[in-house]
């Protein structure tokens, strides 16, 4: 029974963080843009309209604030851990050091599903925007190649979704520095697009469109918060990059907090302008930002927004796929997944085989499975991770009070406890089918843990040899 709760030594983790198996090339600026690249995408370009029309109305702004608060509390917890134990794995690694192996494996298993489904789901959204852009030039893909089977459109494969994931995979396999450069460029493009929307749209805002402000009541605001939470997924991916940062103790907390703060402010402004331009009842569309501009006669700018949406969604794909690989890389290095996933390419200094395996799986899901119903499952996984890291901070303060921390969560244990309760509250508002699917996935994870991970764990060998990196 004790083996289920065995923990990784903080000392061994710190030794591991000083090795240079992965290339340390990222700065605080890169991390901030990495976070923005992950956060701003499907949430702002797609979910805003649906949530306003079906759940929150003009009170969409309150839904974003509520979700933003839940993320802010969790972000502080991530920042403390990332500055203290700067290695790959994010909440998986932090849980391993505080709550024990069984919890670490299950949250890692949970995060793998979260990031993989998010990658595939976002690729599906990318495909829709890309096909819309092609139609603007008079081009159209055959129905058989434009959607997944079962999507109701007569498709056999969503080819654009498959292609974009494989292109992102190729980029990530070549190196994190190159990937960061591409991400930075695309982030500047989508920030310019969002600022252009705000500047153009603010002149068309009609205060009467904000009435009634809360048409679905406070319950609608909470439901909206649980849904738009998907829009914030990604800032935690910054923590997975800790082992590839030049000065992780300082730069990782900066990247996490700065990216979340910038995106929250932009979300609030965009939701105010959007619901002020168009009556919320008309916003139940797949491209609410472009639709709002077309609604007020700004068709040319609406086309520009579509290009920005494609760029924005591409950066989300890049960061989600990156985070997925780094989680499975860390678990493999600890012996909880097959060791081949932890092999680092001698030239590119990336988990090359792991990256391509993940890319092919993600492309297969995006190409052949309709994922529109799985956004809630992604939210569930993220909220579970946020709950655990909030608890882990409290445990770490008790078990390692003298550990050097470059960043500290204020008001421990009160703030982390509020964070955990807040996340559990949002989880409770998700549909019952989401809970069933979540427990099924966790059940599969338990089978994998007891069938493979427990006996192959590095901690099961009597000494933690996980700091010895295999290189191919």
UniProtKB/TrEMBL annotation:
TM segment ranges: 28-53, 59-79, 91-109, 155-173, 185-204, 216-235, 256-281, 301-323, 355-371, 377-395, 407-427, 433-452
Gene3D superfamilies found in the cross-reference section: Amino acid/polyamine transporter I
Transport in keyword set: yes
Localization per Swiss-Prot or TrEMBL: Membrane
Keyword Transport: yes
Keywords per UniProt: Membrane, Transmembrane, Transmembrane helix, Transport
Topology within the bilayer: Multi-pass membrane protein
Regions annotated as coiled coil: none
UniProt-recorded name of the protein: Amino acid permease
Lineage: Bacteria, Bacillati, Bacillota, Bacilli, Bacillales
């Amino acid at each position: 029974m004790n083996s289920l709760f065995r923990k990784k030594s903080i000392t061994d983790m710190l030794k591991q963080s000083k090795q240079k198996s992965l290339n340390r090339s990222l700065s605080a600026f890169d991390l901030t843009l990495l976070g923005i690249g992950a956060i701003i995408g499907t949430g702002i370009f797609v979910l805003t309209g649906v949530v306003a029309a079906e759940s929150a109305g003009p009170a969409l702004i309150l839904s974003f604030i509520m979700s933003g608060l839940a993320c802010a509390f969790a972000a502080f917890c991530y920042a403390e851990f990332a500055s203290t134990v700067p290695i790959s794995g994010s909440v998986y690694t932090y849980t391993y050091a505080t709550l024990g192996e069984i919890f670490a494996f299950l949250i890692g298993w949970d995060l793998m599903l979260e990031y993989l489904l998010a990658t595939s789901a976002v690729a599906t959204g990318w495909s829709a925007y890309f096909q819309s852009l092609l139609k603007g030039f008079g081009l159209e893909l055959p129905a058989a190649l434009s959607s997944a089977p079962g999507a109701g459109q007569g498709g056999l494969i969503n080819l654009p979704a498959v292609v974009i994931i494989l292109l992102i995979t190729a980029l990530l396999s070549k190196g994190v520095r190159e990937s960061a450069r591409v991400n930075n460029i695309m982030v500047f493009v989508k920030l310019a697009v969002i600022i252009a929307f705000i500047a153009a749209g603010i002149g068309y805002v009609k205060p009467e469109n904000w009435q009634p402000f809360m048409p679905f009541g406070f319950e609608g605001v909470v439901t909206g918060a649980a849904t738009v939470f998907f829009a914030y997924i990604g800032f935690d991916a910054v923590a997975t990059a800790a082992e590839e940062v030049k000065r992780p103790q300082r730069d990782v907390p900066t990247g996490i907090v700065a990216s979340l703060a910038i995106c929250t402010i932009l979300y609030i402004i965009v939701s105010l302008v959007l619901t002020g331009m168009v009556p919320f009842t008309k916003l139940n569309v797949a491209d609410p930002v472009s639709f709002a501009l077309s609604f007020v006669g700004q068709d040319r700018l609406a086309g520009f927004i579509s290009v920005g949406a494609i760029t924005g969604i591409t950066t989300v794909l890049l960061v989600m796929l990156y985070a997925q690989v780094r989680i499975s890389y860390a678990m493999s290095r600890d012996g909880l997944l097959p060791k081949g996933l932890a092999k680092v390419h001698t030239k590119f200094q990336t988990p090359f085989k792991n990256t391509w395996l993940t890319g092919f799986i993600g492309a297969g899901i995006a190409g052949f499975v309709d994922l529109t119903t799985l956004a809630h499952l992604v939210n569930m996984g993220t909220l579970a991770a946020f709950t655990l890291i909030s608890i882990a901070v409290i445990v770490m303060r008790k078990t390692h009070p003298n550990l050097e921390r470059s960043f500290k969560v204020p008001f421990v244990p009160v703030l982390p406890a509020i964070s955990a309760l807040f996340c559990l509250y949002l989880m409770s508002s998700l549909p019952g089918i989401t809970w069933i699917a979540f427990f099924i996935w966790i059940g599969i994870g338990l089978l994998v843990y007891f069938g493979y991970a427990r006996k192959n764990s590095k901690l099961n060998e009597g000494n933690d040899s996980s700091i010895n990196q295999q290189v191919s």
